[in-house]
Design a protein that fits this description.
The chain contains 10 helices and 8 strands. It is α/β, with parallel strands linked by helices and 279 residues long. It has one domain: 3-Layer(aba) Sandwich (Rossmann fold). It has an 8-stranded mixed sheet with strand order 1-2-4-3-5-6-7-8, sandwiched between helices. α2 packs across α10. It comes from Brevundimonas abyssalis TAR-001.
């Protein structure tokens, strides 16, 4: 038995040695876009900017609209999501070609939230409240970089969800000239007790009549999210601006976690409708 056992034990490696490992097939990376480390004098460091170009960009002389996407870092996944919607619209002809620029966040509450005097928020998020600095970064460094490097047609939009949506609404109210269109999905207007929504009327009174589009949407997300949205909507109705087109779409079947895809898809089709073709 010991001899047999020793024989069997010794035979196993020989059998394994005769097995052949299939050769691995060639690998080709799937390239979605290009990531840039944009040197920022405002932040004193390089910042991540990701760019998706529509198919055919390199083979044409066409100039394109630009969608600037908040939370647009590679690790946050929104860049992959929204650039995928842009590509789908190109492939199936439901929307025009557009350049998608993802702006990564390093500290979301620092960059996307306006200053608060709430001691609880300050204690919990001590770096919060530098949205003005982030807006300067976009206006003075990101937009010039994109406009100088790519073929753009001057048509711009800003999109964000949650805290990104809060930043979109704040930018629309305080710096409306920065973009032609604003898309705020489930904006966190609860921040600082809803102060931005309450102050919206004062900001709207300062707006020029330049054409602007504001798209707002909210899911079934509770009174904390709905109440300040209602205040914002009331201010928009009470301070109508001839050049501003705005609308609010409630999405009662969606939650904060599920609302983004459908809302972004609809926004693409509204902002970048496919050209109508005759029969």
């Amino acid at each position: 038995m010991l001899v047999v056992a020793a024989f069997l034990t010794g035979a196993a490696p020989a059998a394994r040695a005769q097995e052949t490992t299939p050769e691995a097939p060639p690998e080709t990376p799937i390239v979605i876009g290009t990531s840039y480390a944009l040197a920022s004098s405002i932040y004193g460091t390089a910042r991540e900017i990701n760019v998706w170009l529509p198919p055919g960009y390199d083979d044409s002389a066409t100039a394109y609209p630009v969608l600037y996407l908040l939370d647009g870092g590679v690790t946050f996944q929104d860049f992959h999501h929204i650039s995928g919607i842009a590509q789908l619209g190109t492939v199936n002809g439901t929307s025009r070609d557009v350049i998608v620029v993802g702006i990564a966040s390093a500290d979301r509450r620092n960059e996307l939230a306006l200053p608060t005097e709430d001691p609880a928020l300050i204690s919990r998020y001590p770096t919060q409240g530098q949205s003005g600095r982030f807006r300067r970064f976009i206006a003075e460094e990101v937009q010039p970089f994109i406009e100088g490097r790519f073929r753009t047609n001057g048509e711009t939009a800003l999109m964000g969800e949650s805290l990104g949506g809060l930043f979109v609404v704040e930018t629309f109210l305080k710096e409306p000239q920065m973009f032609d269109a604003y898309v705020a999905v489930s904006p966190s207007l609860w921040w600082d007790g809803g102060r931005l929504a309450r102050q919206a009327g004062a900001h709207l009174r300062d707006h020029a009549n330049d054409p602007r589009t504001l798209i707002l949407t909210l899911g079934d997300e509770g009174a904390e999210m709905q109440a300040p949205m209602d205040v914002l909507l009331a201010n928009l109705r009470d301070h109508a601006i001839p050049g501003v087109t705005w609308d609010f779409t409630p999405r009662p079947t969606e939650s904060h976690a599920t609302i983004y895809h459908g809302a972004a898809l609809e926004a693409f089709r509204r902002l970048y409708p496919a050209p109508q073709t005759g029969d």
